[in-house]
Amino acid sequence: MSTENSGLKCSYYEVRIDNPAHQEKPYVAECSDIMEALNLNCNETAVFKEIWRTANARLGKKKKGNSPLRAAEKIFYSAYRIYRLAGGEKHELRDL
């Protein structure tokens, strides 16, 4: 089984912080650690992960099969669900 498609630890979910703002030593941040620490819900998690993967792809850590359009569609869909759950007006997604 390929680690990159297994749900296990993947390079595109890690980022090295070389110049941390409030620590002396560099460290590696892990996407899931941050999501858990912030207690993100499922829609927030989907948006956060897509932004994380899109940004990490620019650093050469790309998830197989991911594209900027696919990422944008996933972000859009999850952000719309956040909007609706917050009381936003209902629209047909195709009209937005």
How would you portray this structure in words?
By secondary structure, the chain is mainly α. The protein contains 3 helices and 2 strands; from the N terminus they run ββααα.
What structural category do the secondary elements indicate? Answer: mainly alpha
What is the global morphology? globular
DSSP helical segment count: 3
How would a textbook summarize the main sheet? 2 strands, antiparallel
Oligomeric organization of the protein chains: single chain
Report a brief summary of the structure.
With 96 residues, the chain is mostly helical. 44% of the residues lie in helices and 8% in strands.
Descriptors:
single chain, 96 residues, two-stranded antiparallel ribbon, 3 helices, globular
What is the fold's blueprint, element by element?
Elements: E1 14-17, E2 27-30, H1 31-37, H2 42-58, H3 68-85
Antiparallel strand pairs: 1-2
